[in-house]
User: Which sequence fits this backbone?
């Protein structure tokens, strides 16, 4: 049998474990019992100075003595003073206990808030699940996208310390303008933690590959499942953008819900962008302009005013916007034939400064005497040098084989000899072992014999160390170029955008900041899911892609023209002209490296033999 003391102790332990309300209630009960006993003693010994006072009155004064030590100063009579002094000492103990309990509860609450475990009440917010280096470009770009909104918020849920995440965002991103950023600590794969961030009220959800997970792709897929198969989910479809790192996991990921999740294969996209940029200087800046929310963006617009008209008429039909294609029956048609007719259910895919600023063009006249009759030159075999290797190498070589002419070659040099295919498409590959930062090795490769040079970042190292090795390689290459009096076409991959400023001193033609580009793409798709298909075509060797072609193929040189003339000239080759690049400004960052995307159609300019026309063309 349990003793009475054991039972009491068990009851007391359970009561104490119930939290603040139980502790305060217990302390209040003990205080009232103590005051009641002291009041009885005062009445039993007739110690109260004023005879005839009732019980409640005496109890009130006893309670005041317990709560306020100063009350005892005015007491009279030795017996009364003694009893009230005892009451005051007891009250000091009880008040001190109350202060300790409240203070402890307050500290506990502050600690809980610092841990980020309270529920958010945000509605119509962008929800980011997971954490990696792309989160900073996401927050930055979404803040710009939200400038036109009166109230906007971004909520982040990741299995990291809340205060550390807030400090990193503050340091890396800075001011987010009108957009409120709310951070919570939790596991995005757990249903209970998802309740903290009101995933049901989010207008879009972005799932990042966690940098702390053993297998990031499995964590991403499980997070998507937790959202799509959540028993509390709404009937309306989610708008989810998620990143996958390993191509082998993509098919499994698509089984989750193709109608609700847009999957971004980050490594594949980066490899394709690297190949396209390596072959055409200036493309990285064009891609940045298309993907960020500053300047011009891609919009889907009504085609009501153009039903029955041709795609070429649509291209001429806007003064400050460029048509890229048509969205028809859920399918993206980039750069359709100029004579393609616009249907009533079509949407126009436009490059515009803002969807609220799209303007119709005034009447225009095209000076057809400005059009060039020069025929394009057939592509010739070329050679590419890749310095370094990472997980994207195989995709880069495969994609490169789809672009180059038959008989082209690629040479890969890395510290650990890469193991890859000897041939890919029109490309033959050679793999060498060596340190890309070594001047002796670089000189032995006869650098000037290569048409294109790609410097890959070593992703197995930290961002700063990998970028430092890339910078050393670039410095060596540029010094060799000066010694030889030649120019090398170099594209390098950077992992940290802050290192781009340092890299610019090496005079490389283009810089690819991997995390920045993928982050920009995901933020764009989170705002408009249909953009996923647009980007899939743009960053692929299939379908139409962005290219820079010699101005002399389109217009007569060194005479004033406008964009209407370029649009007309490009249409003759079944291409869509979207801008031009001036050779004289290609090294000036203040002038966007000479890139003029979507210029005002009526504004005059002239192009020289070294300038390029930016077109959307069939690959």
Assistant:
């Amino acid at each position: 049998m349990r003793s009475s003391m054991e039972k009491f102790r068990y009851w007391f332990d359970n009561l104490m474990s119930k939290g603040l309300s139980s502790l305060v209630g217990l302390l209040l009960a003990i205080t009232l019992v103590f005051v009641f006993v002291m009041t009885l003693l005062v009445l039993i010994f007739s110690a109260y100075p004023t005879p005839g006072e009732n019980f409640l009155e005496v109890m009130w004064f006893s309670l005041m003595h317990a709560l306020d030590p100063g009350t005892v100063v005015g007491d009279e009579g030795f017996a009364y003073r003694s009893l009230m002094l005892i009451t005051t000492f007891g009250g000091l103990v009880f008040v001190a206990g109350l202060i300790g309990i409240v203070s402890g509860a307050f500290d506990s609450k502050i600690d809980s808030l610092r841990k980020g475990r309270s529920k958010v009440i945000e509605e119509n917010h962008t929800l980011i699940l997971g954490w990696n280096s792309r989160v900073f470009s996401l927050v930055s770009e979404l803040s710009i996208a939200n400038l036109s909104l009166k109230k906007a918020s971004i909520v982040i849920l990741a299995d990291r310390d809340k205060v550390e995440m807030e400090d990193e965002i503050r340091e890396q991103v800075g001011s987010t303008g009108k957009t409120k950023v709310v951070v919570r600590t939790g596991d995005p794969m757990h249903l209970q933690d998802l309740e903290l961030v009101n995933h049901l009220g989010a207008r879009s959800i972005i799932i990042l590959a966690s940098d702390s997970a053993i297998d990031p792709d499995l964590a991403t897929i499980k997070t998507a499942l937790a959202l799509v198969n959540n028993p509390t989910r709404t009937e309306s479809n989610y708008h989810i953008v998620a990143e996958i790192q390993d191509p082998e996991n993509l098919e499994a990921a698509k089984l989750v819900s193709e109608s609700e999740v847009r999957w971004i294969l980050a490594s594949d996209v980066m490899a394709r962008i690297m190949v396209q940029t390596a072959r055409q200087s200036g493309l990285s800046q064009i891609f940045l302009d298309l993907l960020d929310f500053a300047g011009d963006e891609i919009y889907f617009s009504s085609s009501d005013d153009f039903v029955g008209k041709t795609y070429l008429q649509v291209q001429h039909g806007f003064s400050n916007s460029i048509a890229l294609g048509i969205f028809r029956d859920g399918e993206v048609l980039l750069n359709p034939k100029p004579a393609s007719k616009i249907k009533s259910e079509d949407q126009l895919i436009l490059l515009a400064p803002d969807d609220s600023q799209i303007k119709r063009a005034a009447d225009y006249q095209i000076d057809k005497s400005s059009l060039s009759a020069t025929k394009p030159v057939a592509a010739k075999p070329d050679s590419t040098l890749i310095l370094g290797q990472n997980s994207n190498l195989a995709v880069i070589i495969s994609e490169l084989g789809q672009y180059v002419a038959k008989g082209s070659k690629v040479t890969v040099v890395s510290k650990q000899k890469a193991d890859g295919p000897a041939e890919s498409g029109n490309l033959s590959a050679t793999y060498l072992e060596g340190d890309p930062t070594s001047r002796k090795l670089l000189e032995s490769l006869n650098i000037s014999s290569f048409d294109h040079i790609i410097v890959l970042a070593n992703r197995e190292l930290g961002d700063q160390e990998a970028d430092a090795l890339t910078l050393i390689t670039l410095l060596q290459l540029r010094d060799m170029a000066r010694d030889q009096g030649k120019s090398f076409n170099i594209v390098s991959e950077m992992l940290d955008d802050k290192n781009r400023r340092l890299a610019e001193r090496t005079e490389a033609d283009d810089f690819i900041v991997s995390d920045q580009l993928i982050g920009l793409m995901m933020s764009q798709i989170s705002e408009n899911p249909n953009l996923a298909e647009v980007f899939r075509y743009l960053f692929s060797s299939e379908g139409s892609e962005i290219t820079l072609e010699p101005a002399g193929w389109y217009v007569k040189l060194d005479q004033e023209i406008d964009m209407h003339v370029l649009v007309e000239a490009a249409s003759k080759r079944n291409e869509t002209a979207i801008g031009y690049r001036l050779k004289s400004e290609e090294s000036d960052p203040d002038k966007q490296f000479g890139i003029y995307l979507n210029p005002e159609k009526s504004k005059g300019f002239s192009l020289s033999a070294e300038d390029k026309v930016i077109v959307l063309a069939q690959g």
